[in-house]
Structure formats: structure tokens, C-alpha cells
Automatic annotation (TrEMBL):
One of its GO terms (biological process) is regulation of cell shape. One of its GO terms (molecular function) is lipid-linked peptidoglycan transporter activity. Keywords: Cell membrane, Cell shape, Membrane, Peptidoglycan synthesis, Transmembrane, Transmembrane helix. It is a multi-pass membrane protein. It comes from the Bacteria. Its main location: membrane. The chain crosses the membrane at residues 71-94, 106-125, 145-168, 180-200, 212-232, 252-278, 299-321, 346-366, 394-419, 431-453, 462-481, 487-506, 527-548, 560-584. This is Murein biosynthesis integral membrane protein MurJ. Residues 1-56 are annotated as: Disordered. It is found in: Cell membrane. GO terms for cellular component: plasma membrane.
Amino acid sequence: MAEPNARPGPASSPSGPVRGPHGNPRYAPQAAPRTGNGYAPLTAGPAPQPPAAPAGKNVVRSSLLMGAGSLVSRVTGFGRTVVVSAAIGAGLLGNSYTTAQYFPQMIYELVLGGVFASIILPLFVKAHKNDADGGNAFAQRLLTLATLILGAAAILVTACAPLIAAVIAEPAQRELVTEFSYLMLPALLFYGLFAILSGVLNSRERFGAPMWVPIINNLVVITVAAVFYAVYTSDATPNAAGELFGSADQVSAGMVVLLGGGTTAGVVIQVLCLAPALRRAGFRWRPRFDFRALPLRQIRRMAGWTLLFVAANQVAVMAVLKVANTAAGNAAPDQFVSGTTVYNNAYLMMMMAHGIVAVSVITALMPRMTRAADARHWPELAGHLSSGIRLASFLLVPISATFIALHEPIALAIFQWGAYDRTMALATGQALAWVGIVLLAFSISQLQIYAFYAQTDTKTPALFNLPVIAFRIGGYLLAFAFLPLEWVVVGLFAANGVSYLVSLLLSMSLLRKRIGLLDMRRTLNGLVRTTTAAAIAGGAAYGGWLLWPDLPDDGWGAKLGQLLAAFVLGTALLGVYVAACLVLRVTEMASLQATVRAKLRR
């Protein structure tokens, strides 16, 4: 997708002012306890206390469990992308499948995603704390309402699959995209149910299942792709351009059913696997239709700006899909042009790096930034943000250097498998080099957006996101208009980079007016030093790749050589970066040294 929907998570967005009994007889205390609306207790006595959060070793164990689950989920998710790519390639079939796979996620974000993350999830926590039944009735009402809304949306958009495909897909792929969409759009319902049921578990301090269950989904799709490879890919015949499944007559109904149905089955199984954890948490879902007890008016009021933010991002997603599909669709019969699959694979590499580094930094900083914002301690908030930017930059700059300097061996080692041939892998490498260029601007812009969310401000990011999206879509159109077809996907990443820079500068300017100086002189000084160190390391690694012995184009010898080159040169790049940071006296490097020494003394 063009950009993840950066929005407040459960720890970052308080649910707004308390709408307790004051001034509203509907919420007056009752003689007998009844279930609440997620805002305030509705009993005559004090609010029931939720179970105490685990302390000491239990907290550490929970944190380790979540961290391990997140890492394994990201690794298996990336493995899923590689296996699917090997099975179906980056031609007509791969682009059609990738395009159809976006649709249920896009529509889920529009229907519920933004509202859930910024408004409803915090309400689960309040309901569990304040309601006499621990929030069960609130969750049951919300689940019932969401099921009705998402079910109706799933039926409607599935019926409109041909229209959606006509807007996004090219003529040669519309039939395939439509067939995949009929099978994959119903997953919209299950994406929503998984999000809400995960919120129920998280509000009850049950974090393990929502973190680990997506791994099962990844394994299901990996299995489906492996079966597809064994049944169809291994015996497939390339077309005139040397591609497998490069024309619609090479794709059978059985292929579509296996891929599309298997992908949706993974989402369904993911939801079903939450059932044991929900039972252990004491939650039973019984349909409840007394929706008047839900704070719908307040939810609508607070969610409006978040929905604007999400909707603008989904327009950008539709634009990037359309441009990538059009570029691939305009290729000559014997020419490979990168399309949606190549863009998506390179983008997932960026999101994996961002997720491992920047999201971890955001998660650690959000409670501190939120407390500082609640107390209106603006210098403290600015200090936390500045330290987060410096730490994220220190960790991300060598990753960017790796993507730029070693894009070719990395792309060949990871993606050149099965139907994803050398030409497709090299095209992915070209896009990966631009991922390295734009990664840091993207992650810093996301960190600054979360500084607004720490202040419970969803309006400002939604408004300045509009010109950001305008720059992005304008860049997409310029890339398609002026670049050769084979460079359009690279141009899409360049357009993303410009929009990330615009977002960074706008958010920085607005934050400076609101919370004061962001200590940017110190941040820029650190960034210059780390970038210099990364440039030295990247230059050394690239020189090593130029001197690396020539490898055959295919076969196990080529694959072993690619893997060895990526590992050896990547390790060398990291070593040179660390050494250069020590010589240049990078502050974060000194802090890391001190931490390691303290650990070793224990």
C-alpha cells in the first residue's frame, strides 16, 4: 500500500472527556448495577476494579512473549510474501492476485479501521475498568453492530467486484482480479472481527493470542502457495517473454480458487483461533441489539478526523495500484515491466524495517509522550520526540545504506525463486534501492504524527495529510507520464519519498509552534554523523559487491552465491558502520556501549 494508516493505537489515544452522569439523566446512577457504555461506571457504588496487571517477572514474561510473537509474525509474513511470489511470479497472475488482496483491507480501513484504532479500542479498556460486568455487554453490543455493518459491507462490495476491478485493474487483468475479488472480499468481515476480538483480549491484559495467531494465517497461506507451486508452477510453460502465467489463458479456475480461497481461509482460521483465548479470558459473545447503550454520537464525533486521514490514504493506495497496473499492462508482449507485485514486495521490505525499528521506538515512547502531553509539559514532550528521532535514525540509517548499496544481491537472494525470475528480482532490487532513500523520511514523519496523537489531536494530522496525499498522487501521475515504463515503479517510490518529506516538514513546523524547539540542531548533528558513517560503510559494501566473483544466473550454485554475498557484505557493512560511528563519536553509539558494559558487569 502507499502508506500505512498512521493513527493512534490503544496506548496513544485516550477516549476523550468522560461522559459520566453529570448533566445527563440517561447516565444517572442506578439503584441496581447495569452495564455501561464504555465511558464511565453506571453503578451506584464505586467502579469495579479490573484484575491487577501482572507485575515483576510476569510483566517481563508478557513483554518477551509479545516481542517474540511480533518478530515471528513479521518473519513468517515476509516468508509468506516470498513463497507466494515464487509460486505466481510478478506478471499478470501475480499483479492480479496482489491487486485483489488489497481490496478487503482497504475497505476494512474505510469502514472500521480508523474508528477502531483511535476510538473504540480505548473504550474497551474503559468499559472493562468501569462496567460492573467487566465490559462484556459493551463488547457484545459492539461485536454485534460491527458484524452487521461489516457483513453488509462485505456483501455489497463483493457484489460490486466487477466495478472495483474496472476502476483499478487493466483490461487484460480485470477478469482475473474480479474472480479473485469474489473469493477475497468476504475476508473484510473477518479482518474486522479479528481487530475487535483482539481489542477485547488486550483490554483484559491478554496480549499473547492477538500477537501469535496471525502467524497461523501466514502459515496457512504459505501452505497454499507451496501446494500451488507443486501442482501448477513446477510444470508450467513460460510465455514468449519467459514469464510463467503471463497471459489469462494460462490461469485456470482451479488456480484462482486455490489462491483466492486459501487466502481468505487463512483470515477465517486466524479469527477462529482466538476462541480459546477468549474463553480463558471469561468472554462469551452473545448477540445484543440494544445499540442505544453504545456512545455512538461520541464515537462519530471523535472518529471524523481519523476517517478523513484514513480515506485520504486509501485514495493514494488506489492511485498507486492503478498506476502500477497500467504500467505493467502497457508493456510489449516480450517485455517485463514492474507492476503491483514488485511495488508491493519492495514496500513490504520498507515496512519490515520500519516495523522492527521505528514502531518499537514509538511503542516505547508513546506512554511517556502521552503523560507529558496530558501534563502540558511541552519541553518534556519535545525531548522524548527528539530522542526517539535520534535513536530511530541511528538504527535505520545502516538499513537504508544496506538497501541502497546491496539492493541487487539482496533482491536476488530473497526473491529469485520459482516463477519470480531473475529479471523480476532485479527490478525489485531497483525499487529496493529507492526504499533505502525514502525509509528515514517515512519513519521520522510517522514519529512526529504520533506526537500529535499523544496530545489526542487527530484533526491536525488529518488536515496536513491532505497536501501530503496531493503531492504523492501528483508524483505518481508525473512518474507515469514522463518515465519509461520499466522505471515507473521506481518513480512511485520517489513520489512517496517527496510526500514523506513534505509530511516531515509540515509536522515539524506545526509541532515547533505548539510544543517549542525540538532540539533539531542536536538531531541534525547526529544525523550528519550517522549518515557519514553509513555512507562509508555502504561504499565499502558496494565495492565488495563489484569485486565479488561472477555468479551463474540460476541453479543452486547461483542461489548459494547470492545468499553468501548478501550475508557477508551485509555483515561487513554493519561492522564498518559501527567502527565509523565510534570514530565519529556518535552519541547513540556511546550510549549503546555503556548499556552493553553495564550488562556485562552484572
